[in-house]
C-alpha cells in the first residue's frame, strides 16, 4: 500500500499565508455571498423563462390557463393569446359565449 501524506493547505490561495491577515478571507466570503445571489437570480430567470409569451408582441404574462383562458391575453395589447394545451385562440365573442371575461395578470 502507498503511504498517504497529509498536507497542511495554506489558508490563503492567493498568497499562501496561514494567518488570513492579508484580507483574502473577506474576499472569499464576498465571493460566496455573490455566488448565492447568482443562484437566486438564476432560479428567478428560470421561472420567468417558463412564462408564456404574447403571440402578438412577445411580452410575457403569468400562469396561462386552459379553457379558463380569460387570463390569456397580452397585458399591453389585450389581444387573445393561443391556449398552449389545445392550440385554441379564444376571441372575445367566444369568451362571452363561455361566460368568461378577458382579464390579465400584471407583469413583475
Pick out its properties:
2 domains, 30% helix, coiled coil, rod-shaped, mainly alpha, two-stranded antiparallel sheet, 108 residues
Description:
- Keywords: Coiled coil.
- Residues 24-51 form a coiled coil.
- The protein has 108 residues and is mainly alpha-helical.
- The protein folds into 2 domains: 9-50; 52-108, no CATH class.
- Helices cover 30% and strands 4% of the residues.
- The chain contains 2 helices and 2 strands.
- It has helices spanning 24-49, 92-97, and strands at 52-53, 60-61.
- Strands 1-2 form a two-stranded antiparallel ribbon.
- A hairpin with a 6-residue loop joins strand 1 and strand 2.
- The radius of gyration is 27 Å and the shape is rod-shaped.
- The termini are far apart.
- The model is unreliable at 62-70, 83-87 and 104-108 (pLDDT under 50).
Amino acid at each position: 500500500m502507498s503511504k498517504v501524506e497529509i498536507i497542511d493547505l495554506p489558508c490563503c490561495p492567493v498568497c499562501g499565508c496561514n494567518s488570513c491577515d492579508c484580507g483574502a478571507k473577506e474576499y472569499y466570503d464576498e465571493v460566496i455571498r455573490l455566488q448565492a445571489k447568482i443562484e437566486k437570480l438564476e432560479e428567478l430567470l428560470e421561472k420567468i423563462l417558463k412564462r408564456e409569451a404574447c403571440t402578438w408582441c412577445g411580452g410575457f404574462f403569468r400562469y396561462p390557463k386552459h379553457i379558463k383562458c380569460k387570463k390569456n391575453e397580452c397585458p399591453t395589447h389585450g389581444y387573445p393569446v393561443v391556449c398552449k394545451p389545445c392550440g385554441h385562440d379564444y376571441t372575445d365573442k367566444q369568451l362571452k359565449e363561455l361566460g368568461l371575461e378577458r382579464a390579465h395578470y400584471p407583469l413583475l
